[in-house]
Amino acid sequence: MKEEERSVWKQLLFHSITFLVLGCCLMFVVSTFHLDITGNRLEETGAYDNTVSAKEKWKQEEGSYLQCEKRVDILKKVGKYYIQIRKPQNTNYSVRLEDCYQEKRVRLYLYGMQKESLSFDDLEVVCQGKNKKKVYECFQTGTSISYEEQSEKKSTAILSFQVDKIYGYCLYEDSKYIYLACKNPKEVYNKIIVLDAGHGGKDTGTDAVTGNWSESYYNLDFVKKIEEQWSEKDGKLYITRWNDKRCSLQSRVRFANSVSADYFISIHCNSSDEAGGSGLEALYKSNQYKEESKQMAQICLEELTKATGMTNRGALNGQEIFIIRKAKMPTVLLEMGFLTSREDVIYLQSEDNRVKMAKTVCNAIKKGMSIIK
Ligand SMILES: [Zn+2]
């Protein structure tokens, strides 16, 4: 081999080795960075990768995918009471939470699971609060796991947990666990509205001048329709009565006070002994919450008048009414027409009109919350 040729081969060998060394360095940097952002060893990043790549499936199944975080960061956020669920690895699932506060129960729907992939051994409750004993008792006696078949291979795992009182819930996830944090509702939700359907059970309220429905039915129907229109992003909406059972005035107020609601809105229909009483009216709280209560009452009345064409009889001081007096927040009692007025009842009997009124109240509450300081 000539001297020139030898030199070319040497140079070629030198460049190849340099290229190989640089390549190895680059791979090392990339893998270290990956380790750093996920906080997991490479073989454990399956869940993280699944969480990101499966986002498009969100629309097909009803749940949503959680942002995977480091355990150390999650433990700073979960608070004093949380439930930890060990995740089955390499499963592409999404989560939906259902707050069944009426039953003091919370359900997690894990879509896309394999059947029987979770057992009680995968669930653990951690509580450091004063109510620790009650919390453990609820967890031990009131936890259930069931499965609903989605397809041949996939199922929805339904985890149902009993809780000792009403909580606001947050979900977190790391590579091994899902964390269901149970917090004070006020810590979780920006705004809280408690909506109350007046009367119920044997207390039917005012009898309507025509038709089968008494006041308690109209009130409940309105509240359910408002709830249907409400979107969680506008704030948390709780309702005090969701069926035709009796509900004491004390328990309604206790409910609103216990969740520290921003507004307490009670839905009623009016009555009058005199002939000719008809239209919309509202009662407001008149202590330190007078301004917010009165403004909210007026906004609801104005919007309802615009939508229905009914007479606006104005907002009145309702301080002598038990629930208004005892509630510790801005409070409004809305009278959605007179059941002693034939004209009002005929209007209220139309499903379309009631939907329109419910939508209007829903929008008026949102409007009120955005402008009242
Ligand atoms: Zn009433």
Salient structural properties:
2 domains, elongated, 6-stranded mixed beta sheet, 4-stranded antiparallel beta sheet, Aminopeptidase, alpha/beta, 373 residues, 39% helix, 14 strands, 11 helices, binds zinc ion
Overview of the structural elements:
- The chain has two domains: 54-183, no CATH class; 189-371, Zn-dependent exopeptidases (Aminopeptidase), CATH 3.40.630.
- The chain has 373 residues and is of the alpha/beta class.
- It starts with a helix and ends with a helix.
- The strands form three sheets. It has a six-stranded mixed beta sheet with strand order 10-9-11-14-12-13, with helices on both faces. Strands 4-1-8-7 form a four-stranded antiparallel beta sheet, sandwiched between helices.
- Helices cover 39% and strands 24% of the residues.
- Zinc ion (ZN) binds next to loops.
Secondary-structure map:
Elements: H1 3-38, H2 46-53, H3 71-77, E1 81-86, E2 94-100, E3 105-113, E4 123-127, H4 132-142, E5 144-149, E6 155-162, E7 168-173, E8 177-183, H5 185-188, E9 192-197, H6 215-229, E10 236-239, H7 249-258, E11 263-270, E12 280-284, H8 290-308, E13 312-317, H9 322-326, E14 331-338, H10 342-349, H11 351-371
Parallel strand pairs: 9-10, 9-11, 11-14, 12-13
Antiparallel strand pairs: 1-4, 1-8, 2-3, 3-6, 5-6, 7-8, 12-14
Helix pairs in contact: 6-11, 8-11
Zinc ion binds at residues 198-199, 205, 215, 268.
A few lines on this structure:
This protein is of the alpha/beta class.
